[in-house]
Amino acid sequence: HVQLVESGGGLVQPGGSLRLSCAASGYTYSTPCMGWFWQPAGKEREAVAVIDGEDSTGYADSVKGRFTMSSDDAKNTVYLQINSLKSDDTAVYFCSDFNNWGPGTQVTVS
């Protein structure tokens, strides 16, 4: 079965950077379209970045220019580079193939 595990979250000061990773396993074919989602405390989960099988990416307006999603097919891993972090970026970050979800990783900007 498919498993997704996020890592790389933590406490960072405003203006700092983080790189989140999502290790995927259990796929019998090439990694499908993947997405990164965030869920601030008390709010709904929202997509912030997506990548397709051809490495084309899309971003929510609120993160364009600061977030970069990438994929390493050889490692079955997708990444989310987050720059110029703001307090509003504080959230649990999840990766998903739109069917399966990882447990999430907490990012706190303070």
Describe the overall structure.
This protein has strands at residues 3-7, 10-12, 18-25, 34-39, 46-51, 57-59, 67-72, 77-82, 91-96, 105-109. The protein has 110 residues and is mainly β. The strands form two sheets. Strands 2-10-9-4-5-6 form a six-stranded mixed sheet, with no helix packed on it. It has a four-stranded antiparallel sheet with strand order 1-3-8-7, with no helix packed on it. Strand 4 (34-39) and strand 5 (46-51) form a beta hairpin. The relative contact order is 0.33. The model has no long low-confidence stretch (mean pLDDT 94).
Structure described in brief:
0% of the residues lie in helices and 49% in strands. With 110 residues, the chain is an all-beta fold.
Protein traits:
49% strand, mainly beta, 110 residues, six-stranded mixed β-sheet, four-stranded antiparallel β-sheet
Could you tell me the strand content as a percent range? over 45%
Rg from C-alpha positions? 13 Å
Mean pLDDT: 94
Largest sheet: 6 strands, mixed
Number of strands: 10
Q: Write the H/E string, N to C.
A: EEEEEEEEEE
- Major sheet: order of its strands? 2-10-9-4-5-6
Low-confidence stretches: none
- Mass-distribution shape: globular
Structural class: mainly beta
What is the assembly state of the chains in this entry?
single chain
Helical content band: under 10%
**Count of DSSP H/I helices:** 0
N- and C-termini, Cα separation: 37 Å
